[in-house]
Amino acid sequence: MARVIPIQRGSLAQRLPEAAPEQTVDACPDDPEETAEQYLLCSLPAGETERFEEHYLGCESCAEALRAAEDFISSIRMAGLRLAKSRLHLL
């Protein structure tokens, strides 16, 4: 079973620095959105976590994918909580 990591809305976005133009950045992952989701859910293969962390700190495109994934995961969790709460009232 996957471990669920609580994410506070906007917490990651506040920690992401602006990409430095003089910093050399490795190539983006093949699927930045999927990689960002896996990163936030702590399900990247061994070694990929550190590589992605180093990359997104210097790549505005991947940092934006990470922000979007954080918002998406947070929204899904909130919807699940609202659904569970509304079903409890039906019992």
Word description of this protein:
It is built from 4 helices and no strands. By secondary structure, it is mostly helical. It has a domain at about 30-90. Helix 2 (about 30-40) packs across helix 4. It is elongated. The two termini are about 25 Å apart.
**Strand-residue fraction?**
under 5%
* SS-derived structural category: mainly alpha
Give the helix proportion (percent range). 55-70%
How many angstroms separate the termini?
27 Å
Please give the number of β-strands: 0
Largest sheet: none
Instruction: Please trace the helix and strand order, writing H or E for each element.
Output: HHHH
**Estimated radius of gyration:** 16 Å
Shape: elongated
Low-confidence stretches: none
Tally of individual helices: 4
Keywords summarizing the entry:
single chain; 91 residues; mainly alpha
Task: Give the arrangement of secondary structure elements.
Layout: H1 11-15, H2 32-40, H3 48-56, H4 60-90
Summarize the structure.
The protein is mainly alpha-helical and 91 residues long. Helix content is 59%, strand content 0%.
